[in-house]
Design a protein that fits this description.
The complex is a heterotrimer. By secondary structure, chain B is an alpha/beta fold. Chain B contains eleven helices and twelve strands. Chain C has two domains: 181 residues, 3-Layer(aba) Sandwich (Rossmann fold); 73 residues, no CATH class. Classes of the chains: A mainly alpha, B alpha/beta, C alpha/beta.
Chain lengths: 318, 321, 331
């Protein structure tokens, strides 16, 4: 019968998955990049703090019952002139503890950020796959819509969607819906970059022989797109998603700052910055400073992490 | 032996024109690339039929049409009596689909890098809802790999081993016909020997039929029973192997044999062929080879030669005898 | 005896990697005389392209020449610095790569690229450079050279482009040309044309050629001598007819036996079991011994020999010599 072609015996069982992961090229380059490690630490701390906000925060800033207007404008660390309470990072104009508000505000920022990016990613990857694989009119329509959308600045698109949604919803629900509309707006303004990248990668993979082999066996276009092509085009998507996250968080802050984002009863980092901006030069600097610092740290760390990720996943640089 | 594959008058044209707007603005006609033109041949069951040609000869296109990846623009391809392009009975199409498989040229692009070998090899059967228990392991051993290799990923294997995995995948659904598109062109010589030997053994053991596409004359001579020579999408000569190499009748075949570098051609001063392969969008009128043919006459420039039989050989040349 | 144009002595190329120090070229030595074509043959990963790159100074860092000498007409060039090497390239050394599409700048006309090289290395003026460029194109067989000199590379076919690349390599009149798989991407009929061209030009001008390829047929027809490489080492070197028909090294013999040869019909191809080891996983002892059916204790213990250590033309402690041995190896 056939001669055994490989004289070398099969290698011993590969080591466990965790060990393999630790020794892999990916984590090796992570361990060697101090920037990546620091960024990851910062992000981890902030995310953890936000998740555990109910446990960590000394006060609940969203509950109007606990607020005492007399606590307003307390400087950080010093006891309040009227009530004697002291707050780590001071209070804002309504007596909310800035520290707690930052923690709860980050929750909104992160939730909106993640969800928006998720929406953009799912939509973008789906449309990109369809455009790349099916070609023809499907591709033309999707790509032209994408091109048109790109001519508008993302924030404008988000505001447009926000305005439309606001016009449609009855007033009683507006505050409740605000978060979801925010997610929708930012997500819909962001899908294009995913779609473009995935379409390009799909075009490349489509012509490879393993796709032809699958077609040969009679697999449906849907099966080929999801089982064969999708796993191979996800690499760049991951990188874009990370950087998009930072941008989505900033976008949310921008929209809240402009007054069209998070409702005033549930302030996010952007809302805090807006409030703080008014009082910045009259001496109550902490209302602006700390939220802005947090936003900066969050966005910067995510960005740096995304940068490192892109280089780490680039096969040519390895 | 009956014909397993019957190709009649096969033609395939690609529209490679620029987009409509560009054409209108630049006043250019449509550009139609005739990759395959009126090709007819038959492949007997359990034999190896080789299609030989240089780039632009259309051999890969023919392979893809036979397998069903591309529809023909004209003519018919029948496998076991079923024409995949026109058959309406879904069950018959499906049955024939399971009988045909393909092995591709690039071992690095033929396997999905994210799938395990087991899933890759089982796919042809699983796609039809078949039972795949132990199938991958058995096939891998049949092609000379180890059963444990089923758990691995393609990047852990060398080029020759990947090609073996491709062969295992091709065998999974128990096909009768395997179209091999340059299966060893990307492999080193010693690995090529292993893969070719494997393919020969499998053919004998399993009674397979091969449609073997290659540009390498030495490989073709080693593997084939019958050889068809293609030039610019046209079949110019077809003959049983020994006869073709002993007495090639078409001037192009002769030129090809003379030009091919030979391992025993030490210091051979070759008179290299003149000219180059013409543009398939604007092929020469009449016989496609006439601009380069040492024997060309007036008739060759006007009239495209038909295939005619000279004993066991079929030739498309006005002057061959 | 005149100085060979190229003399490589115990060349070692090393690449430091995360997994250790790799040696894609390990103590390789050979000479090429003027007007001679040396074929360097081997399978992928054997180190033949790396050797060519090392000679001409185009190693990608972190790969570097760790030991050994490269002498161009007696002058050492392995570590003369980038600037000096740059001046040598083009003027005294030319290179032909595999893919003509990427060897030529798509944004410059063929004429511009030729004249640029000529002006850089020869003491001539613009008009003379253009004249020489046209002459160079004519010599490599480009029809209507005077008209086509102002065409862009994409306006030529693959074979024509490779001719332009040859013209480019030879226009500054180098002493040495390194051709790395010059015919692999071309059709058979075009291959024959290019090989004939290369042979003719190099013989006429007395250029030394290092022809790197994996195609035995091309070597048989074009080369005067051949060097067979395996896992970064030189396995055998000698006149082409002798090495190909009466190989001394078991690897070479196995290689010859596994090549389908025109006229030998259906005889089952001999195959060498296993595969060439990866550089990071070289076996103890001789690099070939796990696949060699003549291996003895010495082969498993002593490091891979060099050709010079074995007194002959094969780097093997027990080379094939008698016809009986060759029958066994199936050559």
């Amino acid at each position: 019968m056939t001669e055994a072609g490989s004289a070398t015996p099969p290698a011993p069982r590969p080591p466990g998955r965790l060990r393999r992961a630790w020794h892999s090229d990916f984590l090796w380059s992570f361990r060697r990049a101090p920037v990546a490690m620091v960024s990851f630490l910062v992000v981890a701390v902030l995310v953890l703090a936000a998740l555990l906000a109910p446990l960590v925060a000394p006060h609940d800033p969203f509950d109007p019952a606990t607020l005492n207007l007399m606590n307003g404008f307390t400087p950080p660390g010093e006891p309040n002139a009227f009530t004697g309470e002291s707050f780590w990072l001071g209070t804002d104009d309504q007596g909310r503890d800035v520290f707690s508000t930052i923690l709860y505000g980050m929750r909104i920022s992160l939730f909106v950020g993640f969800s928006a990016v998720l929406l953009a990613m799912v939509l973008g990857v789906l449309l990109g796959l369809l455009a790349g694989y099916l070609g023809g009119w499907t591709e033309t329509i999707i790509m032209r819509v994408a091109d048109v959308q790109l001519t508008f600045p993302a924030i404008l698109v988000a505001m447009l969607i926000f305005g439309i949604a606001k016009g449609i919803t009855p007033p009683e629900y507006r505050d409740q819906m605000a978060i979801w509309v925010l997610i929708l707006a930012i997500g819909l303004s962001d899908w294009v970059q995913f779609a473009r990248v995935v379409r390009g990668a799909t075009l490349v993979e489509k012509n490879k022989e393993y796709v032809q082999a699958a077609r040969l066996v009679g697999r449906s276009p849907f099966a080929i797109m999801t089982r064969h092509i999708l796993p191979n085009v996800l690499n760049p998507v991951l990188v874009i998603a990370t950087i998009s996250l930072a941008l989505a968080i900033i976008a949310e802050a921008t929209l809240s700052f402009l007054g069209v984002g998070a409702p005033p009863t549930k302030p996010s980092l952007g809302t805090l910055i807006r409030i703080g901006q008014e009082f910045m030069f009259s001496g109550e600097w902490w209302i602006l400073f700390f939220p802005a610092l947090t936003l900066l740290a969050l966005a910067l760390s995510i960005n740096l992490l995304g940068d490192w990720l892109r280089d780490a996943l680039n096969p040519r640089l390895r | 032996m009956s014909a397993l594959v019957s190709v009649r008058g096969l033609t395939r044209v690609f529209d490679v024109s620029k987009p409509w707007l560009n054409r209108v603005l630049e006043r250019q006609p449509k550009a139609l690339l005739t990759a395959v033109s009126e090709v007819s041949f038959e492949v007997a069951e359990r034999s190896v039929y080789a299609l030989v040609g240089e780039s632009g000869s259309g051999k890969s296109t023919i392979g893809k049409i036979v397998v069903g990846l591309l529809p023909p623009s004209g003519g018919h391809v029948e496998i076991a009596g079923v024409d995949l392009a026109t058959e309406t009975d879904g069950a018959r199409v499906d049955a024939v689909r399971a009988e045909v498989q393909m092995i591709f040229q690039d071992p690095y692009a033929s396997l999905n890098p994210r799938w395990r070998v087991r899933d890759i090899v089982n796919e042809p059967v699983r796609a039809r809802g078949g039972d795949t228990a132990g199938l991958a392991e058995r096939l891998l051993q049949q092609v000379g790999l180890a059963a444990e290799d089923a758990d691995r990923f393609p990047h852990e294997f060398s080029g020759g081993q990947r090609q073996r995995i491709c062969i295992a995948r091709a065998l999974a659904s128990g096909p009768r016909l395997i179209v091999c598109d340059e299966p060893t062109s990307a492999l080193d010589v010693s690995v090529q020997a292993q893969v070719l030997n494997l393919m020969s053994d499998l053919r004998e053991d399993l009674g397979l039929t091969y449609l073997f596409i290659s540009h390498d004359l030495t490989v073709v001579q080693h593997m084939a029973d019958t050889i068809g020579v293609l030039y610019l999408g046209r079949l110019v000569e077809e003959a049983p192997r020994d006869r073709l190499f002993e007495a090639p009748k078409h001037p192009y075949t002769r030129m090809l044999f003379d030009a091919a570098p030979r391992m025993d051609g030490f210091g051979r001063e070759v008179d290299p062929p003149k000219g180059e392969i013409p543009d398939p969008i604007n092929p020469p009128p009449g016989c496609a080879f006439h601009p380069r043919c040492p024997l060309a006459m007036e008739r060759c420039k006007r009239e495209r030669p038909e295939m005619r039989s000279l004993g066991a050989t079929r030739v498309a040349c006005h002057l061959a005898e | 005896m005149t100085t060979p144009v190229l003399s490589v002595r115990d060349l070692v190329v090393e690449i430091p990697t995360r997994k250790g120090l790799l040696r894609p070229v390990d103590r390789v030595s050979f000479d090429i005389a003027a007007g001679e074509i040396l074929g360097v043959v081997g399978e992928s990963g054997a180190g033949k392209s790396m050797t060519g790159n090392a000679v001409i100074g185009l190693l990608d860092p972190p790969a570097r020449i760790a030991q050994g000498e490269v002498l161009l007409s007696g002058q050492p060039i392995q570590n003369i610095g980038r600037e000096a090497l740059r001046r040598l390239r083009g003027k005294r050394m030319g290179m032909i790569f595999q893919d003509p599409l990427t060897s030529l700048n798509p944004l410059l006309t063929v004429g511009e690229q030729l004249t640029e090289t000529i002006l850089e290395h020869l003491p001539v003026g613009n008009a003379e450079a253009r004249r020489r460029a046209i002459a160079a194109l004519e010599e490599v067989g480009i029809p209507a050279a005077a008209a086509r000199i102002d065409s862009y590379p994409h306006e030529f076919s693959g074979g024509m482009r490779q001719r332009v690349v040859i013209a480019l390599a030879l226009c500054a009149e180098p002493e040495l040309v390194i051709a790395d798989e010059p015919t692999t991407a071309l059709d058979v009929s075009v291959q024959a044309q290019i090989v004939a061209l290369l042979k003719r030009l190099c013989r006429e001008r007395g250029v030394a050629v290092m022809l790197v390829t994996h195609d035995m047929g091309v070597i048989a027809e074009a080369a005067d001598r051949v060097a067979v490489m395996y896992a970064g080492r030189l396995a055998e070197i000698g006149p082409v007819r002798e090495v190909l028909t009466a190989a001394r090294h078991p690897y070479t013999a196995g290689l010859m036996a596994s090549t389908p040869l025109a006229g030998h019909g259906r005889r089952r191809l001999r195959q060498i079991p296993g595969a060439m080891p990866r550089l990071g996983a070289l076996p103890q002892g001789c690099a070939f011994h796990p696949r060699c059916d003549r291996a003895e204790a010495r082969c498993r213990q002593d490091p891979t020999p060099r050709v010079e250590d074995c007194g002959g033309r094969a780097a093997c402690w027990f080379p094939l010599s008698a016809p009986a041995d060759r029958q066994e190896a199936g050559a």
